[in-house]
Structure formats: C-alpha cells, structure tokens
Design a protein that fits this description.
With 523 residues, the protein is an alpha/beta fold. It has helices at residues 59-76, 128-140, 186-197, 223-226, 243-255, 271-276, 305-320, 339-355, 383-391, 401-404, 426-430, 434-437, 461-468, 471-480, 488-504; strands spanning 2-7, 10-15, 21-24, 37-40, 45-46, 52-56, 81-85, 95-100, 112-116, 120-125, 158-159, 162-166, 172-178, 203-210, 213-214, 259-266, 326-330, 359-363, 376-379, 395-398, 446-453. Helix 1 runs parallel beside helix 2, helix 3 (186-197) runs parallel beside helix 5 and helix 7 (305-320) runs parallel beside helix 8 (339-355). The longest helix is centred in the N-terminal third of the chain and has 18 residues, at 59-76. The protein starts with a strand and ends in a 19-residue tail after the last helix.
Length: 523
Amino acid sequence: MKYIFGWVGILLIISCTQKPIATVSIDERVLIPLPQKVIPTENAFLIQESTTIYTDTDSEVFQISQAFKRQLARSSGMNLQVEEIQTNDLSNEDGIYFVLDTDSIQSHDEHYELTTTTERVELKSNTPKGLYRGMQTLVQLLPDEIVKSSVTDSIIWALPGVYISDSPEFEYRGAMLDVARHFFSVEDVKRYIDLISSYKLNTLHLHLADDQGWRIEIKSWPKLTGIGGSSEVGGGEGGFYTQEQYKAIVSYASERFITVIPEIDMPGHTNAALASYPELNCDGKAPKLYTGMRVGFSSLCVDKALTYTFIDDVIREVASMTPGNYIHIGGDESHSTEKDDYITFINKAQEIVKKHGKYTMGWEDIQSATLSDNTIIQHWTSAKNAISGARQGAKVVLSPAKRTYLDMKYTKETKLGLTWAGYVEVDSAYVWNPKLLLDSIPQSQILGIESPLWSETISTIDELEYLAFPRIIGHAELSWSSWDILDWNSYKERLQRHANRLQLNNVNYYASNKVFKDSTVPD
C-alpha cells in the first residue's frame, strides 16, 4: 500500500515497506549565483530526523557540516546526527556527505561537486573552502523556509535530484562597507557577512577611517578613537571597534571563508586623525571634527617624520590583527596634497605595509606612485588610471561606480543614496560584462568585482540592506558565473522567485518594478 501527498510541486510517496521517496524538480528551486554545470536527475533526497550527516575528520569540514546542521535545525526542528569519516571514505550508508576529495585534479580551490540521489547527498571538494561554497548551493536547493530562525511545520525538506559541478569565474568577489561615515555595530557587520556569504562572496573590505570618524582602536595612539571615533555624518555619536571586537569580526568572517581587508585611508580622508592629534598637521593645529559629506580637503603632513611613525604604528597594529595578505591604504581624492608630496607619501606607505608582512591595495589613484610587487588597485571611476596601474603590473579589482556603487540611488524617487555617478537600477547593476570593462588590460590581471557601500546617507542595518539588496546579488552572480551562461531575463525571473527567501530572511530589499511584478516600490 502506498500513500501519496503533494506540496507545491513536491510529491511524497510513502510505502509501508520502503523509505519515503520525494520527487521535486530542480525547477522548483532558485540558484543564485548560477552554477557552471547543472544536470537534473530523477528522485530527490528526503531529509528526515533519522538522516545522518557524514563529515570528513578535517576540523574545518566538520565545522561546515555543523553549520549546515544548525541551520537545518533552526528551521526544521530536526537535530541530525553527525558522524566523522576518513578522507575519501564514502561508505554505503544513506545520508549527507561532506567530503574532502584529495584525489581531485581540479585546480581551483573553490571548485565543488554536488550530487543528490534518493539514497544520498555527496558534496565534495579538494578544500574546505570549496565545500563551504557548495554548502551554500545545498541550502538553496532546500525550501525557502531554510533561512528562517524559527521552526516551520508542514514543510517537506527535500533536495532535488541533481549533479552540479561548479567553480568561480573570478578569484576576488567582494563587498565593501564604509563604517566611517556612519558607524555600524559588530552585530550589523556579522549580519552583512552572513548575507554576502550566502551568495559565495569571499572578501569584506572594511573602510575603517575617514574624515568623519576613526573606527579601529590603535593602542599606541588612543586619541584616534577617543576623539576621532566620537563623530559621524550628521553629528551622531559615532563609535569604534575595540581590537577584540575587530578580531571577532575577522574570525566570524573567516569561519565563512571570507577574508577581511581593512582600509585606513591616507593621506587624505584623514580629518578624524588630524583632529585627534594636532601634531600630524603641518601647522600643529587640530581641525574641528567633521560631520559633513564633502571630500578632498584633508591631508596628513607629508614632510613630518612623525607622520610616518604614525602610519607605521597604525599599520603594525592593524596588520597584526588581520590574517589576510592585504592592507588597503585608500589614496583617493587627496586633492589637498601636492602631487609630488602624494607620490612620496604613497611610496613610503607601501614600504611600511611591506615591512609588516602585507601587500598594498589602494584605489586606482595610487597608480601615480611606483607600485610595489603584488599591489592591487581598485578601479572606481578612471579607466585611464586603472590601466596605468595595471601596466605597472598591478592586479585590478573592478568597482565601477556607475555599476557597482551601492550607495547610488536606484531612481530619482529613492530617498536614500547619492547621485554623483548616476542612478543604478537593478538591471544596470547586472547588465555589463566585467571582462570587457577595461579591455586593454590582460584578463589575467583582472581579479574580480567588489561592491562598495559608502554610508553617507545610511545609519541602520535596514537602510544598509535596502541599498545593497538586490544589487549585490547580481554582482555576486557576475563574479561567480561565466558570462556565456548569464542572461538578464533568466536572472530577473530567478530574482523574482528569490524574493520569497529574502522576505523570510527579513532582508529589507528594494522591490524594483523592473524585476518584481506588481510591486509598489518603497521610498
């Protein structure tokens, strides 16, 4: 005897003598970013309370399997058993497998393969990083309710039958968050990390210091936060991260295989530092704390030896807390620094970064200096400058303001955001080819894409999410998926359906009427 139940495209067949069999089509799920290869198969895998998760003994792989277990438990109430197995040991037992494939010849360390059948789910990669990216796909193959933080009844937790082979198009897939213009708490930053990691981003660039505020504790220069951390745009109370809090952010990101790149902008964008320590000014006088939005008016005193002692101390302390290879030194909009002084400063700053075991990253403006080895320049507005930096051998991260700046308004009706680079609607953020943006630069020098979110007009996590989503989702797909498999109409249809998951995850996204049918776009 068999009993047949159906839930919105899912068929569950229960036999008195056999385990339940679920049938769900891959078409019932939404995958963003789009994987490189997706081959649907037949019967789905049904997750039940009796399902076992088998995990490689590698500690990072074990933590990935535990993260999946916790997420499933929150939304389903099922507390699955986890058992460790040896590397490459795929036993005959039914279950969900997280396995390091040490025999794999795949060259990319984020490549993964995912296979689901009626009896088992196998997620394999030659690195824990690849398994984590694959786990995000695994989560997307489950019902949307998987993102909820409370148990949802009457849901069949089934994975469609599928084979997926996937790896990223670009090595660098980033988001930048400006916590200097307005300060965001540790919990806000962690929330953002969780959201971007679900779309396989791997870098968080934190803009930690600017004219309006200094946000990272430097023990050798305590007034930077005592004074410089006390202001923000509009005159709010500001704030800063203690070193322990910054380390906690870095650790939280690392657990999600996201590298934090800290930015200390220099020699301009430094009014908060200059107000904290008058001796860093050429005239020895402290300017007032700044709460406006103007740029290009401040500069460290390039001729003072103390300036480089200051930079050395700051870079030393920040580098010691940052396991990633790069320190971002900014370098943009230094309009009040003479060109020769600017070049002198950037050359010295690069040497200080190198001294502390890191490589330099900076905005494309730093190309006027002599770039050190392994430098990354970040393109934001001048193709000429970006190309000039690349000709010195630098790698390039693409952040073209007209496509990727998340602080730009969507339309003229949008209340939040700026307009100096134009309006960036959801389609404009997606319909461009990163490989053709700077066509005179060899593809080998293009590292990937970063989505900057400057915070002049936002001060809450809801406002942050409104400007970031859904545009950053499109950037994530451009960063991960091959251009030849992408299509705006396909993406638009998937994003429409993905809105349900955003809502269940309480993401305050912009419901563009270019994408979401019959939507009333909020201000």
